[in-house]
Structures are given as structure tokens and as C-alpha cells.
């Protein structure tokens, strides 16, 4: 029998959680328009909405907050962050931003011109929005296996080299400012990219003088999967694998709120001095001085420490292990999820979970709402709502994947919390036919998953048939 592994940390401080009754949750959900993003955190029991900025920082990070140098220029804290990025990731030039989308904004403005194409291994919402707002067309070049939640492929985040070559042949390399490679791929279910594939992409792009820019938000998790799944890396440290990974790129955007283990902040990194000089000018316009960007000195101190803590082999093994602990319980109960289990979240296959609903009935949104109603667990939709509308036709984009993301914050919850989540999902699955679809009653013009509002399609306005409800928390 495999030996169980405990958390590689001990708890110094606790935060009391809200445990509302069913009726209280129902009222909160109604106020939020059945959008989990609009539920007050005070009304949430276990919050799996996102792993972005929800990390529990270490005692060393909290202590470092008191040493932050808030100088307007030339901050000591900035020098420590710059040094950490250079040592751990290997990039020469670094610009701090308030978070990852600040880096996306600057990169998109500088690299993209009207009529360009930006290929990527599946889109991410804000990344694609910045690309399109600056005149580019996003082209999905991920392998086909990534669009099938049931396919068990070790590297479902891989770029399809044939698709990339076809796009280059079709539009010309001069129309492709860079290839955006996510490591790992969030909307595919937290799926990794192999080192072999990263090398192939980089070599192809260099042959055509196209830059490769990583969305490096969860790159440490990607490195761990390479260590586990790719021949020749099993005896390497995660830190050394990560350094090699990043060498097959020309730069990256980073949301520090994930694998850098902090609550706010990000950066844009690169090796091209000319791009760095141009980026530095835009940082001043949109973020702040190049030596702090959108971050306070104390946050840069915490991030510098978090960057190094994240590549500790014991930490990342537990982090991935906890996600698997939840996912395996669901697999054992025959709950349809994206397989293999990803690095930062377990993704429910809402189409298979609620087969009686059409995609236009927003099954992932309905399932996320039902989960909160059942147990106070907050998750999020990653499907037709997140995909938005076609800019030309105005019709819904209809992704193959209609998912509910159960995102595990780093160093926050114990496996007992995961048990509560699993129990709620299993009970919901048993009464899945009683969950109705939703209609959209308010739709914002962009990134609608943040602020859209919904209502149940049932005649009596109930999301879950009342006679079948089971209150997990009284």
C-alpha cells in the first residue's frame, strides 16, 4: 500500500469559515444572479473559485512584508525580485506588473498589429481579450486530445506542430508576432506540455523568426508533470526542469498570484533588450515605475521568496497530490471529470454530468450554482459562458469542453475539506436529473463570465427540485 503524505507545513493561524443554512445559501445565490463570481465571500464555506491570489503565504513571506523597501525608484525589494526571476526562470529582463493581465496588456500592445494572428495551445480569457483588442485573431493549435475530457494523454497541453506549421504556411510568419504557449493549459483542465514539445515549438519558431512567449502562470506545476511523466527527467529536481523549460521561450507573462505564492502581483520577462526598453516605457504609462510596476515593495519581497519556495520538491509534490486526492475520489465514484487530473484543479465534465441539458442551457454554470446551493462550495464555469460570442456572427462560441473548475488554493485547505467537496458532488450526481438549466438575464459586452446574471429555466424558479434537496450543512 502506498504511504500517505501529510502537508509539508504546519498551521500557525486559522480563519473561521462561514457555514450557512440551505435557505441562506439559496438567498445568496439568488442575489448573485446564479453567478458564483458574484457571491459574497462571507457566504462561502469552501472557496474553490480560483487559485489566483488565494494562496496562504509562509511565515518567511509574512515576515518579509515588514522589510519591504517602498522607495519610488531603485528599491531593494525590486532588486531581490529581479534576482529571483533571473535565477529561477533564467530571463534577463523583468518588469513588475500589478498582476498577469497587466503584463498581457503591455505585450499585446507592443507585439501585435492589426491583422495579425496569435496561435496558442487553447485560449485563456484575458489573454485572448488583450490579443483581440489589439487587432489579432487567436488560433487554437492545441492537440485534438485536449478537447476530449475522457482521453487519458500525459501531455494534453501540447501544441500540434502540424497545426502551427499550417498556420505559418497560410498567413506567413510576418503575420505571427509570437506563439503563446500556456504551461500548464488552464481551460484544458490544467494539462501540461512536454519538454519535447516545447523544444519542437521553439525550434520551428526560430526557423521562421517567430517569438515564443509563455503564459507561465502555473509553470512549476508543468515542470512537476514533466518530472513524473517524461523519460529522462525522473531524477531531476523540479527547479532544474523549470529552468530548462523556460529556456525554450523568448519571454513570459506571469501572474504571481499562482505559482509565485503571493496574493497580488505579476511580471513581464524577456531576453530581448529592445523589447525590454519598449516595454519599460509602457510600464510607466500603465503600471508605475519600472522598479515597482504595479507592486508595493513588500509584495515584491514576498514574491521573491515565493518564487523560490514554489520550486521546493516537497511542496509541489503535496500541491499536486492534494488535487489528485479530490479527483481520485470523484473518479472512484464514476463522476465524469477531465482526465488525467490536472495540476491546479479538478474539472467536472458538465455535459456528461447533466446530459439532459443542452449547451445553450449553460450546464456548467448550472452545475456550479447547484454545488454552491448544496454545500456552500464555490466553483466556476469554464464553458460556453467563458467562451463568449463570435465577433462576426454574434453567436455563442461553443467549445467542446463544458467544465466546472474546482480550483484548489495553495496551502489553504486540508484533505478533510476535499472530502466535503467530494461528498457534495457525489450526492449531486445521484440527483443530477433534478438540476435544471439556466437562462442569461444580463450579459455584459466582454468577459461575461465575471458579471453575467442568470435565472433557472424551471417553471417554479427552482434550480434543484425542492423535494429532492439534501442539506449537507444545516
TrEMBL record:
UniProt-listed Pfam families: Beta_elim_lyase
Modified sites of kind N6-(pyridoxal phosphate)lysine: 258
Gene3D superfamilies reported for this sequence: Aspartate Aminotransferase, domain 1, Type I PLP-dependent aspartate aminotransferase-like (Major domain)
Annotated keywords: Lyase, Pyridoxal phosphate
One MF annotation (Gene Ontology) recorded for this entry: tyrosine phenol-lyase activity
Cofactor (UniProt): pyridoxal 5'-phosphate
The Aromatic amino acid beta-eliminating lyase/threonine aldolase domain, residue ranges: 47-423
E.C. number: 4.1.99.2
Family in the record: Belongs to the beta-eliminating lyase family.
Protein name (Swiss-Prot/TrEMBL): Tyrosine phenol-lyase
High-level lineage: Bacteria, Bacillati, Bacillota, Bacilli, Bacillales
Amino acid at each position: 500500500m502506498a504511504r500517505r503524505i501529510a502537508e509539508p507545513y504546519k498551521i500557525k493561524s486559522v480563519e473561521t469559515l462561514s457555514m450557512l443554512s440551505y435557505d441562506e445559501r439559496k438567498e445568496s445565490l439568488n442575489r448573485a444572479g446564479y453567478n458564483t463570481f458574484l457571491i459574497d465571500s462571507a457566504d462561502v464555506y469552501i472557496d474553490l473559485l480560483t487559485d489566483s491570489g488565494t494562496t496562504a503565504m509562509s511565515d518567511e513571506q509574512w515576515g518579509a512584508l515588514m522589510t519591504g523597501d517602498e522607495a519610488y525608484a531603485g528599491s531593494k525589494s525590486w532588486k531581490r525580485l529581479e534576482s529571483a526571476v533571473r535565477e529561477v526562470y533564467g530571463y534577463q529582463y523583468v518588469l513588475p506588473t500589478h498582476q498577469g493581465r497587466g503584463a498581457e496588456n503591455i505585450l499585446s500592445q507592443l507585439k501585435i498589429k492589426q491583422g495579425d494572428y496569435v496561435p496558442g495551445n487553447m485560449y485563456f480569457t484575458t489573454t485572448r481579450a488583450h490579443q483581440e483588442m489589439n487587432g489579432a485573431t487567436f488560433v487554437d493549435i492545441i492537440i485534438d486530445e485536449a478537447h476530449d475530457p475522457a482521453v487519458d494523454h500525459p501531455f494534453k497541453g501540447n501544441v500540434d506542430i502540424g497545426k502551427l506549421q499550417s498556420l505559418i504556411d497560410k498567413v506567413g510568419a510576418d503575420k505571427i508576432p509570437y506563439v503563446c504557449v500556456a504551461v500548464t493549459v488552464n481551460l484544458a483542465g490544467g494539462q501540461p506540455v512536454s519538454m519535447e514539445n516545447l523544444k519542437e515549438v521553439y525550434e520551428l519558431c526560430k526557423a521562421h523568426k517567430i517569438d515564443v512567449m509563455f503564459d507561465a502562470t502555473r509553470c512549476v506545476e508543468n515542470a512537476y508533470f514533466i518530472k513524473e511523466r517524461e523519460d529522462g527527467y525522473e531524477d531531476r529536481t523540479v527547479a532544474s526542469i523549470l529552468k530548462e523549460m523556460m529556456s525554450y521561450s523568448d519571454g513570459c507573462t506571469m501572474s504571481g498570484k499562482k505559482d509565485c505564492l503571493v496574493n497580488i502581483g505579476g511580471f513581464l520577462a524577456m531576453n530581448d533588450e529592445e523589447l525590454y526598453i519598449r516595454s519599460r516605457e509602457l510600464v510607466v504609462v500603465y503600471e508605475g515605475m519600472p522598479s515597482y510596476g504595479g507592486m508595493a515593495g513588500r509584495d515584491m519581497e514576498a514574491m521573491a521568496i515565493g518564487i523560490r519556495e514554489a520550486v521546493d520538491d516537497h511542496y509541489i509534490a503535496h500541491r499536486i497530490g492534494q488535487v489528485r486526492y479530490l479527483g481520485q475520489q470523484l473518479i472512484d465514484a464514476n463522476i465524469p471529470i477531465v482526465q488525467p487530473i490536472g495540476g491546479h484543479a479538478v474539472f467536472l465534465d458538465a455535459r456528461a454530468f447533466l446530459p439532459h441539458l443542452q449547451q445553450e442551457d449553460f450546464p456548467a454554470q448550472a452545475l456550479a450554482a447547484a454545488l454552491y446551493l448544496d454545500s456552500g462550495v464555490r466553483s466556476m464555469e469554464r464553458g460556453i459562458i467563458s467562451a463568449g460570442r463570435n465577433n462576426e456572427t454574434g453567436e455563442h462560441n461553443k467549445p467542446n469542453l463544458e467544465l466546472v473548475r474546482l480550483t484548489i488554493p495553495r496551502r489553504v485547505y486540508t484533505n478533510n475539506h476535499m472530502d466535503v467537496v467530494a461528498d457534495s458532488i457525489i450526492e449531486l450526481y445521484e440527483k443530477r436529473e433534478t438540476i435544471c438549466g439556466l437562462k442569461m438575464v444580463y450579459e455584459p459586452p466582454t468577459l461575461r463570465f465575471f458579471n453575467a446574471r442568470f435565472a433557472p429555466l424551471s417553471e417554479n424558479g427552482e434550480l434543484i427540485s425542492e423535494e429532492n434537496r439534501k442539506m449537507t450543512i444545516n
